C-alpha cells in the first residue's frame, strides 16, 4: 500500500496507481459477483462493476421499485436478475450483501443456509456483523468476510463513475478463509469505481458511519439549517431571504468551494466581515455541539441506535410512517420554499418557462 500524509499522520492506502483497473479485472475474471438488493448502493455498485467488465448478477424482490429499476437498467430476468435470494447465493462466488440493515437480518437465514466454502461475503456497512447479537448475522468460518464501503450515497457512486471520477471507499477484512480475502476486496473496491481505498475495521466503519449520518452528513446539518431558518423567519425575514441565506448560499456557493479547496480557502475567499464571523463563531458552535456528538457516538457504540433502527425499520407499517415523517419536512414552509428557489435557478429557467 502507498503511504500518505494525512494532516501529519501517516496512513497506508490503496490507490489506482498500485492497483489499476486492469489488475482488478484480472483478479476478478473468474468470479461471479452476486449483488443482493437493488437500492441506491446495489444499483450504483452493480452498474459500475458491469461497465468495468465484471460478471454480475442481481437478487431483488419482484414487484417493487428496485425490480423495475433493474429491468430498466438492462438486467435480464432469469439470466442476470433473480427474484429469490437463494438463486443468487448459489450462483455467485462473491456475494455483495447490500440489502437494508433490517433486510439483512430478515434474509440471513436464507443466505447463511446456502453459503459454501470459498465464497466471499462482502458488506458495504459493518452494521450486521458488528451488532450480531441484534441481527444474528454470524458468517461461517469457511467464507471470506470483507467490507468495501463507499463514502457517499449510491447515486453518487454511479454519478461520479459516469463523470470519470470516483468516490473514496474504506475496506476491511474480518475473516480470511481463502487466503485471498484482501486481494478480492481491494479489487472489488477499485472495480466499483473507488478513487482510493483506506483500511478500517467493521467496527470502526459502523461507528463512524452511523455517527456521521446522524451528525454532519444528515441529521445535524438538517437541524442546524432549520434552527437558522426559523430564527430568521421569527425576526421578520421573508421565506425567500431566510432560505437563500441558510441553504442556497451554502449548497450552491460555499460548500462546493469547501469541497474543492478546503475550509481555509473558502473562508479566505469571503469578505473580511464573513471571515471574522466564521472564525469567531465556529468555536462557539463547536463547544455547543461537541457534547451532543459525544452522546451520539456513545449511543452508536452501545447499540442503542442500531436497536432502534432494527425495531423501527422492521415494523409492518414502517413505509407509511416514514412517508409521514418525510412529509413533515416536505410540507414545511422551509422546504416548500426550497422547491421554489431551486426552480428559479438559471439552469432550470427553461423548465420553469414551459410550465
State the gist of this model.
The chain is α/β, with parallel strands linked by helices and 355 residues long. The chain contains 18 helices and 10 strands.
Topology:
Elements: E1 2-6, E2 9-15, H1 21-28, E3 33-36, H2 40-51, E4 56-59, H3 65-72, E5 81-82, H4 85-91, E6 94-97, H5 101-112, E7 120-123, H6 127-130, H7 132-135, E8 144-150, H8 154-162, E9 167-175, H9 181-191, E10 194-199, H10 202-214, H11 219-234, H12 239-261, H13 263-268, H14 272-302, H15 304-313, H16 318-330, H17 333-343, H18 349-354
Helix pairs in contact: 1-9, 2-8, 10-14, 11-12, 12-17
Description:
This protein has helices at 21-28, 40-51, 65-72, 85-91, 101-112, 127-130, 132-135, 154-162, 181-191, 202-214, 219-234, 239-261, 263-268, 272-302, 304-313, 318-330, 333-343, 349-354; strands at residues 2-6, 9-15, 33-36, 56-59, 81-82, 94-97, 120-123, 144-150, 167-175, 194-199. The protein has 355 residues and is of the alpha/beta class. The chain has 2 domains: 2-200, Rossmann fold; 212-354, no CATH class. The protein is globular, with a radius of gyration of 22 Å.
> Which fold does the CATH topology of the largest domain refer to?
Rossmann fold
Helicity range? 55-70%
Radius of gyration: 22 Å
At the fourth level of CATH, the homologous superfamily of the largest domain is: NAD(P)-binding Rossmann-like Domain
Number of strands: 10
Sketch the major β-sheet: 10 strands, mixed
What is the number of domains? Answer: 2
Strand order of the largest sheet: 1-2-10-9-8-7-6-3-4-5
Mean pLDDT over the full residue set = 93
Q: List the secondary-structure elements in sequence, H or E.
A: EEHEHEHEHEHEHHEHEHEHHHHHHHHH
**Shape-level CATH architecture of the largest domain:** 3-Layer(aba) Sandwich
Distance between the termini: 54 Å
Amino acid at each position: 500500500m502507498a503511504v500518505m500524509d494525512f494532516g501529519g499522520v501517516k496512513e497506508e492506502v490503496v490507490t489506482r496507481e498500485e492497483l489499476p483497473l486492469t489488475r482488478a479485472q484480472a483478479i476478478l475474471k473468474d468470479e461471479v459477483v452476486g449483488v443482493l438488493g437493488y437500492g441506491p448502493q446495489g444499483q450504483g455498485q452493480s452498474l459500475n462493476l458491469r461497465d468495468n467488465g465484471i460478471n454480475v448478477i442481481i437478487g431483488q424482490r419482484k414487484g417493487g421499485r428496485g425490480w423495475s429499476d433493474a429491468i430498466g437498467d438492462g438486467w435480464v430476468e432469469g439470466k442476470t436478475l433473480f427474484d429469490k435470494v437463494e438463486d443468487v447465493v448459489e450462483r455467485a462466488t462473491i456475494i455483495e450483501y447490500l440489502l437494508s440493515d433490517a433486510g439483512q437480518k430478515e434474509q440471513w437465514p436464507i443466505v447463511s443456509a446456502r453459503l459454501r466454502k470459498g465464497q466471499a461475503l462482502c458488506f458495504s456497512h459493518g452494521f450486521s456483523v458488528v451488532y450480531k447479537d441484534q441481527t444474528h448475522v454470524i458468517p461461517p468460518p469457511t467464507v471470506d468476510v470483507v467490507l468495501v464501503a463507499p463514502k457517499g450515497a449510491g447515486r453518487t457512486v454511479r454519478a461520479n463513475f459516469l463523470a470519470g471520477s470516483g468516490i473514496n471507499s474504506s475496506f476491511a477484512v474480518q475473516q480470511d478463509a481463502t487466503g485471498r480475502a484482501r486481494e478480492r476486496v481491494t479489487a472489488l473496491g477499485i472495480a466499483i469505481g473507488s478513487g482510493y481505498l483506506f483500511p478500517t475495521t467493521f467496527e470502526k466503519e459502523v461507528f463512524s458511519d452511523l455517527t456521521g449520518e446522524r451528525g454532519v452528513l444528515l441529521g445535524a446539518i438538517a437541524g442546524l439549517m432549520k434552527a437558522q431558518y426559523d430564527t430568521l423567519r421569527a425576526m421578520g425575514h421573508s421565506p425567500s431571504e431566510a432560505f437563500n441565506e441558510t441553504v442556497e448560499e451554502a449548497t450552491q456557493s460555499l460548500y462546493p468551494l469547501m469541497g474543492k479547496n478546503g475550509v481555509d480557502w473558502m473562508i479566505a475567499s469571503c469578505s473580511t466581515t464573513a471571515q471574522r464571523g466564521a472564525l469567531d463563531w465556529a468555536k462557539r458552535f463547536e463547544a455547543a455541539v461537541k457534547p451532543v456528538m459525544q452522546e451520539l457516538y456513545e449511543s452508536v457504540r452501545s447499540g442503542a441506535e442500531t436497536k432502534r433502527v432494527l425495531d423501527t425499520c422492521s415494523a409492518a407499517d414502517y413505509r407509511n410512517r416514514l412517508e409521514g415523517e418525510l412529509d413533515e419536512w416536505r410540507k414545511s414552509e422551509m422546504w416548500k420554499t426550497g422547491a421554489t428557489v431551486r426552480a428559479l435557478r438559471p439552469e432550470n429557467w427553461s423548465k420553469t418557462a414551459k410550465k
